[in-house]
Amino acid sequence: MGTLYVVATPIGNLEDLTFRASRVLRSVDVVVAEDVQRARKLLGHVGSVSKVITYREDSPESREDAIIERLRAGDVALIVDAGTPGVSDPGPDLLARVRSEGLPIVPIPGPSALTTALSVVSFARQPVAFLAFLPERRVRRERLVRRAADTARTLVIYLPPHGAADRLSELEAWLGDVPAALCRELTKLHEEIRESTLADIASFVSVVGARGELTVVIDVGGVAEAPQVDQATVEEQLRIHLDAGTRPARAAGAVARALELPREYVYRIARELRQPPTSSA
User: Fold this and answer.
1) What is the pTM of this model?
2) H or E stretch including 92?
3) Is pLDDT at 4 greater than 50 in this prediction?
């Protein structure tokens, strides 16, 4: 019976791979990875000739069956493209399956964009809420962010490069122009850590663009006492006015005053509600 090693790998700089991780990657029979080519590059760096098989979030159950069979025959290492498996990448479902089979799991700690960002941001304080990548639907994003801001002092969010500026503007609308830090290219040659405010960071990203995934750290220590109103409530109040024939601008003004929200934020939602639905050909 083998052991599943959950191995953290570099998030950008290969020199961050630990001695222990290197030893494990050389010693296991099989490495389970998101991307075969990325994995082979890393394994080549440490001189490993282990077999690589893929495992992703959408992998079928049969792939888990194959991994379990490999574990029964020998040691297996689980890695992701960058960082620590399970933090915001595939892993939890496989770990649950391995534990249910009574097989041992050993963590090999190391790099993570989450801890790396928190270690260098001056305002980061406990408690911290790690939201990883936000939901696709706007209403769910807003609800998640507002609820986290109610209980945490610091939020950490991962943003994909596409649409990053829009997401940052949303966060400003929901949380205000609070202190924030933009961390990108962490541990790489062009690493950048920019401490400012959400408005400044949103403007900066809209101008220069986003290279790769972004890690955003937000100080919400002064936000929890503010009125918390999700978008669904705003839309409900706006529809009352709009259905009565009120123009979007006037409806937005009335709802913004009633809910103590920025008028520009409410007006944008009102305009979206008034747009006719797109029809598919």
Assistant:
1) 0.77
2) helix 92-100
3) yes
What is the three-class DSSP state of 211?
coil
pLDDT in tens, 133-171: 999 999 999 999 999 999 999 999 999 999 999 999 999
Q: How confident is the model at residue 187 (pLDDT cuts 50, 70, 90)?
A: very high
CATH number at residue 185: 3.30.950.10
CATH for 56? 3.40.1010.10
Give the burial class of 25: count Cβ atoms within 10 A of its Cβ; 0-12 exposed, 13-18 middle, 19 or more buried: buried
Q: Which tokens hold the place of 261?
A: 């929200």
Dist. CA 40–CA 47, nearest whole Å:
10
Q: Is the predicted pLDDT of residue 278 greater than 90, yes or no?
A: no
> How far are the Cα atoms of 1, 59, 156, 193 from residue 181, in angstroms, in the given order?
46, 35, 10, 7
